Amino acid sequence: MNIRINPSLAALAVAVLLSTGTPLLAELGFDGASVQAEEAKKQKTRRVPSMSETVYKKLGAGQEAIDLKDYVTALEVINDALERSKRYNENEVANLHNMRGYIYYLQDNYAGAISEYKRVVQAGDKIPEGLETTTLYTIAQLSYVQENYDDALKYMEIWISKAVNPSAAPRIFLATVYYQKKEYDLAVEQMELGIKIAQERGTTITEQNWSLLTFLYFEKEDWPKVIDTLEILVELFPKREHWVRLAGVYGQEGFEKKQMYALEAAYTAGFLEKSTDFTNLAGLLMQEEVPYRAAKVLVAGMKAEAVERDAKNLRSLGQAYQVAQEVDSAIEIFEEAAELSDDGKIFERLSYLYLEDDQFDRCVDAASGALDKGGLRKVQSVHIVKGMCLFNQNKLSTARTSFTNCRRVSRAEDDKANQRVCGSWITFIDRESKRQELLSASSG
Q: Which pTM was predicted?
């Protein structure tokens, strides 16, 4: 039994970024201060132009206004200072633009912030290395938010070139950007590298990281690797979505026993919620010849009101009980299902069960109901069952009529096997009728 998977991971990339970022973007959920502090190249300290007391005070005044959330005043202070920028050196100008970029960011003016930060990094070796690397990282992240993926890639690559032994975070960021560009091969390359780095360092690999890698493999239809990552997800983050997806891929790739085990694990953990969850598991259990367990799963689904008690599902439940030789339970369920069914197939099945259980009156009624409703695969088979039940009640005349009807239908459909069966019954009934007549006459 195959189950196609359709993972909804379109917004996953943004979630992945929760593990990356800069102090500037903390409000967006990014947290990458340590990324830059630990990874900036430990070169000889740059000799950069010093900052004058005048600019230092301007920056201080701007920061005070920012702390008060008075962004208008903060902007006025920095704009006023930049109007006199010809008096300042490159480092001072870059720091003023850096603060103006921050103010724009706080005002949700990301395009303005990016423009300012680009002016900061243009100063090159005239600004401290820490400011340059932090700003490069910030531009990359804000460019991503603005969906300018080319700039996001460009500035993150520059940042990586200036870092020593970068951690997993920037690689995962690059993978996320390539994912947005639908360049899945490059996204996989960066994601695998990021996870490898994280594993080597013993750092956390988030559920979102594994999920994005799974999705990328899915897009490439690399099913063995999809299975590998989903198996990791169900082990580390045992959630319904991962178990159901894993079961789906197992089924898609023909690993039906593993599919059943995955759904069983989800069932045991209480993760099954949808009707298809329960019915798929029940179907797999039937295939594996565990019918009683299949019945229990369907009953659980109905009690949880996930599986509707309609004719189709009740028929499946009745079949599971029947195969499990729980005849009384099967009859009870089929009786309920028959009332809801539009055709006579369930009545037909009931007639067989009643015959097996020696309930001949009910057998005749069920067979008649099946013939009345129609939609049967082989009408002649129902006539046979009805005839047998009538015979067991010693209603020979009506039993003979059923077998005569069976022979007529069989001839019309060129069903030679059932012609012979019904003909034999007619012959047998005629002989039995004569025998009983003789007995009656002799006793009289």
A: 0.72
